[in-house]
Design brief:
Largest sheet: 2 strands, antiparallel
Radius of gyration: 19 Å
Oligomer: single chain
Strand order of the largest sheet: 1-2
Helix content: 55-70%
Length: about 200
C-alpha cells in the first residue's frame, strides 16, 4: 500500500474510532483488497471442503471489527491485527458448529470424486489450533500476539516488532519459540514424539 493510501486508511481509522459512522463506510473500499488477501491466506490454511468464501469472511470480519465498542486501533497495522483476530473467531465458531453432533461432528469426510478419505475432521483441526492458541495466550501473551500478527495478520518481523514496541531479534526469538510450542501442542502424543513418562 502506497504512502498516500496508507495515510487515507489511517485518517479513516481515526474517524471510525472517534465514532464517525460515515467513516466506516469510507474505510471499507480503502482496506478491502488487503482484507481479501488476509482472508485468502486464512482460507488457504484450512483443510479442503470449506463452504465459507473469502468474500463472506471479509464482510463478516469487517462488520465485527468496525462495530466493536473500543477498537483500540493505533493505526493500520492494529486494524489488520483486529481483522485477523475477527476472522479467526469466525472460523472457530464455524468449526465448533460443524463439529457439533447436530451437524454430523466426528464423522469422517469422504470425497467420492477421487475417493480420498480425510484422516482428521477439518473442524477438529481448527478447534485444536484454537485451544492451543488460548493456552499460549494464558502462558505468554506477547508470544500469542506475535503468532496472531505474523501468522494470521501476515505482518513481517519488522512490522510485528513495531506494533509490539520490541526489537526485531526479540520477535524472531519469540516467533521461533511460539512455532515450536504450537507444533508440540498440536502433535499427538502417540505420533512418535517423546513422552513425559
Amino acid at each position: 500500500m502506497g504512502g498516500q493510501a496508507t495515510e487515507s486508511v489511517t485518517r479513516a481509522l481515526r474517524a471510525v474510532v472517534r465514532g464517525d459512522e460515515r467513516a466506516a463506510a469510507e474505510l471499507l473500499p480503502l482496506v478491502y483488497e488487503e482484507l481479501r488477501k488476509l482472508a485468502r491466506s486464512w482460507m488457504a490454511k484450512l483443510p479442503p471442503g470449506q463452504t465459507l468464501q473469502a468474500t463472506a469472511l471479509v464482510h463478516e470480519a469487517y462488520l465485527r471489527v468496525v462495530r466493536s465498542e473500543d477498537p483500540g486501533w493505533e493505526g493500520r497495522r492494529h486494524f489488520f491485527a483486529a481483522a485477523a483476530r475477527a476472522m479467526r473467531e469466525i472460523l472457530i465458531e464455524r468449526a465448533r458448529k460443524k463439529a457439533s453432533p447436530k451437524r454430523g461432528g466426528g464423522r469422517k469426510r469422504v470425497d467420492l470424486g477421487d475417493l480420498a478419505v480425510a484422516i482428521e475432521a477439518p473442524a477438529q483441526d481448527m478447534l485444536a489450533l484454537d485451544e492451543a492458541l488460548v493456552r499460549l495466550e494464558r502462558e505468554d501473551s506477547r508470544r500469542h500476539q506475535i503468532v496472531m500478527l505474523r501468522f494470521f495478520a501476515g505482518l513481517s518481523l519488522a512490522e510485528t516488532a513495531e506494533v509490539l514496541g520490541v526489537s526485531v531479534p526479540t520477535v524472531e526469538r519469540d516467533w521461533r519459540y511460539a512455532r515450536a510450542w504450537l507444533h508440540k501442542e498440536l502433535t499427538p502424543a502417540d505420533s512418535g514424539g517423546t513422552s513425559d513418562d
